[in-house]
Amino acid sequence: YKAQGVMEDVTNRIVDHIRPGPYRLDWDSLMTSMDIMETFEENCCVMRYTTAGQLWNFIAPREFVDFSYTTSYEDGLLTCGISLDYGEVRPNFVRGFNHPCGWFCVPLKDSPGQSLLTGYIQTELRGMLLQSAVDTAMSSTLANFYSDLKKALKM
C-alpha cells in the first residue's frame, strides 16, 4: 500500500510523531500498546506493538515485532522497519508481519512549513482473512492515520 499526503508541519516534528517513542500512543487510534524491547543507538530499536481489532473485530487484534531505523534522507527524514521473528506471541493476538516498510517525509520546496509524507506499507496480517477485508481495513486505517496525525500536530 502507498499513502501520501501534505502535512502542515516540519519534517522533524512529523517524524517524531511517527517513529517509536512517546508520541505515537497518544494519537494513533489503531495502536494499543508499544514497548521498546532493545535500543541499539538513538534512532535504531526493536519494538513490539499491538493494534486494535478492525471491522467490528472481524480482524482480531494483532501484535508486531519490528526493527525500526530513522535517518536523514535528502532534505527530509526516513523512518523504516521490518518485522522480526522475535519472542513469544502474547495470548489473544495474531502475530502479523511487516515486510520492508517506510515513511518518507520531505519539506515542500515552495512551502517550508509543509511537508510531504509518503508511506509504503507491506503488511501481512496473517490468519484466515479475505483479501477484500484486509484491503478495506487498510484503506480506512491509512485514512485515519493521516487524520489522527494532522490533529496531533495541531496540538
From TrEMBL:
Span of domain START: 1-155
GO molecular function: cholesterol binding; cholesterol transfer activity
Gene Ontology BP annotations: cholesterol import; cholesterol transport involved in cholesterol storage; intracellular cholesterol transport
Pfam families: START (PF01852)
Any one GO CC term of the record: cytosol
Domain of life: Eukaryota
Protein name stated in the entry: STAR4 protein
Gene (name only): Stard4
